[in-house]
Design brief:
With about 300 residues, the chain is mostly helical. It folds into two domains: about 130 residues, no CATH class; about 150 residues. The protein is about 70% helix and about 0% strand. It has 14 helices and no strands. Helix 6 packs across helix 8 and helix 6 runs parallel beside helix 12. The radius of gyration is 21 Å and the shape is globular. About 10% of the residues have low confidence.
Length: about 300
Amino acid sequence: MTDDWTPDIAALQAHDDAEWRRVERTFCGRLHAYAQRRVGDVQGAEDVVQESLLGAVRGIKDFDPRYSFEQYLFGICRNRTIDHLRRRKARAMAVQEDEDHSGPNLDNLAQESETPSAIVRGIELSERARELLGQVLADWVAETVDQGEFQRLAIVEALFAGGWRNRDAWRYFGLGDETAVAGVKFRALKRIRQLAARREGANDLLPLLAVAEEGGRLLDMDVSGLWRAHHLSCPPRDVLERLTRGEIAGQQKEFVEFHLVEMNCPWCKANRDDIRRGGPDGFDALVERLVQQRRALDRD
């Protein structure tokens, strides 16, 4: 659902200075907003942003085209944020150990439970079928948005990505009863199966979707991780900008607010915070440090 600017990956892989500088200017603010929500201080967030963007430079040759560049970048930022929290926790535990002579409890360290390379771990499908499921869900979301059916999208996001029960969705959206939610889910699964049938190589996925159509087994798979990792229902940045200016209304406004508040989407919140702050302005010093560090990497 996102359609924001994305860089030329070939140019980045060729270490094109202008393309990387635009990446740093474009994404610095939103990465900082994402990191600061988690680490809690400005300097720590700047450290995470530096590590993330330099990590992107180091890893760009292995870029996986199944993901957008923003997904790639935010995936790195998420991991660097967790690393930062682990280091901070380890330092605090070391101080406590010196004080009470007790060993550190490693179980209390921040645990990584979801990365772009592992979000669909445990799904009983082939890698090709998992990839197909992501594509089919993206097709369904795009079709639903084109039809202006934002409440339907919110209900399905709540069920698939949020793990809500039918009862929860019925009460939140003010529908007649739980059967109304079940009907939305049934029709969504039926349409997802039809979209899957149109794609080449759907044979591995269709049997499970047939079961899903009858009994909702689709939700037994890690659809929530897949949904979040592919940012399937994340609104484009320009929609977030128009929301901030009060220029969208009706079901679309209700959906975006639901996505931000109830689904608590960290990527969209980071974009919204960056928009409210005025974009990349104010990060000139950080960007310049990144440029110098990146150029030093290129020389090595």
